[in-house]
Amino acid sequence: MARVYDVIVLGGGPVGINAADRAHAEGLSVALVERELVGGECNFWGCVPSKSLLRPVLAVAEARKVDGAREAVVGAIDAKGVFARRDRYVTNWDDAPVADVVLGMGVDLVRGHARLDGARRLVVTTAERRLELHARHAVIVCTGSTAAVPDLPGVAEAKPWTNRRATDSSTVPARLAVVGAGGVGVEMATAWHGLGSRVTLLARTAGLLPRMESFLGEHVHRGLVEAGVEVRTEVLVTELQRPGGTGPIQVTLDTGERLEVDEILFATGRTPNTADIGLETVGLAPGSWLDVDDTCMARGVEGDWLYALGDVNHQALLTHQGKYQARIAGAVIGARANGLALDSDPWSAHVATANDLAIPQAFFTDPEAASVGLTSAQATQRGHRVRTVDVDMGQSVPGANFYADGYTGQARMVVDEDDQTLLGVSFVGPGVVEMLHSATVAVAGRVPIARLWHAVPCFPTISEVWLRLLEAYRDGAPAG
C-alpha cells in the first residue's frame, strides 16, 4: 500500500531540509526523499568543503598583509592538515548527523530514487524495494543541479574534475588547469594554488566574474596573478588528450597552443537534476529548469500542487536563496493545506525583490569579492535613472588599513535617483564578505539614502566605507 503524506519533498539538501521543516512546522506530515547523502551538494561537495579548504589559504594570505604578522608565516601550508579540517566539516562524508537532524524534526526520511508518477504520486526505488508515496497537498522538487562538462574531443578519457572532485580530493596535483571565470573557477584556483598546485585559470570571457561589476573581476584577477596563478582570458579549450585515462593531460586551446597539466577542472555552469524524476508524467519536459511563480509553484501543471525550489527553478543557484524560497513555500503550502485565505499582496513585492534584486553573493578569493542587487549596467538596462558612486577603500577608510597594511579595495553603490534608494552594492578587498548583509538589508529594505546617514558605522572598522560612500554621493556629479 502507498504511504500517504501531506507533503513530499524530493531532495535532501539544505533547501529540501528547510522546506520539509517549514511544512512540518505548519502542522503537516512530511516525507523527505534523498537518493545520495542527506545534506546534499552544499554540505558535501559545495559550500562547506570549499570554504573549509579556502579559509586556511586566506588566513595565511591575510597574515602576510600585516606588518609583524607576516614574519611569523614560515613554510608552506600543510595540505594534509587542510584536508583533515575539510573532512571534519563534511563529517567524513557520513550523512548520519544530518539525517538525525531531519528525523528530529518529525519528518520521515526515505532513501532512494524518486520519480513522479502522475499528480501527487511518486515511486521511490532502491536495489531492494519499490515504494509508492502519495501527497495530499504538495510535492516539492529540490533536486538541485550538476556541474556541466562541455562535450569536447577527448573529454571522457581525460576524466576532468568538476566541483565534486575539486572539493573532495586529498591529493594536490602538481599542475592544475581551471576552466571557468565564475565563482567556482576563481575560488578553486585560489584554494588549489594555496595548497601547492601550479594553477592555470582559463576563461572564455574578457574578465573574471563577468556577471559582477567589472572592477571585482579586475581585483580578483590581479590578486591571483600576484599570488602566482597564470590567468588566461578570452581563450577556449577545444580538445583534451589523456591516452588510457592516466598520466598528464594535453589541453589544446583555440589559439592552437597546448598546455600539459596533471588535472583539469571544469567550472563552466550547471544543469538541473530533473532528467529522471518523472516530469513527463505531469506534462513537463524532462531535464528542464522549472518555471515558478512568486510562491515557487511550478507553472504548467494543473492542480496547484507541484513546487520547485533552489537550483531547479534557475532563479539563483545559491544555497541561501533556495533556503529563503523554502521558507516562503512552506508558509504558502501550510496556508493552502489548512484552508486559509492566501493573500500574498502584502509580501509578494518583498518576495520578488528578494528573488530578483536583493540576491547576495560572496566569493572567498584573495581579495574577497561580494555583491548584492544590480550592477550599474543592469540597472541602466532596466530603465532606472541611476548614479554610480565609487570609493577607494584603501585611500579613504582608516579601518581598512588597520585590517591590512596597504589595503587595496573598492566599493560601489548604485543609487536609484528617482526614489533615492540603493539598487546594488559591490565590495572587493580583504574582509569584505562580512559586510555584505548590511548591503543586503539596505537593498532589500529599500532604505532611503537620507536614513542611511543615521546608521553610524563603528570606528575603526572596514564598515566606515558606508560613510565614505554616502559622502561621495552627497558631493558627487549628477546622475547619468
From TrEMBL:
One of its GO terms (biological process) is 2-oxoglutarate metabolic process. Disulfide bonds join C42-C47. Keywords: FAD, Flavoprotein, NAD, Nucleotide-binding. Binds 1 FAD per subunit. GO terms for molecular function: dihydrolipoyl dehydrogenase (NADH) activity; flavin adenine dinucleotide binding. It comes from the Bacteria. NAD(+) binds at G180, A181, G182, G183, V184, G185, V186, E187, G269. FAD binds at K51, T143, G144, S145, D311. Its cofactor is FAD. Belongs to the class-I pyridine nucleotide-disulfide oxidoreductase family. This is NAD(P)/FAD-dependent oxidoreductase. It comes from Mycolicibacterium hodleri. The lineage of its organism: Bacteria, Bacillati, Actinomycetota, Actinomycetes, Mycobacteriales.
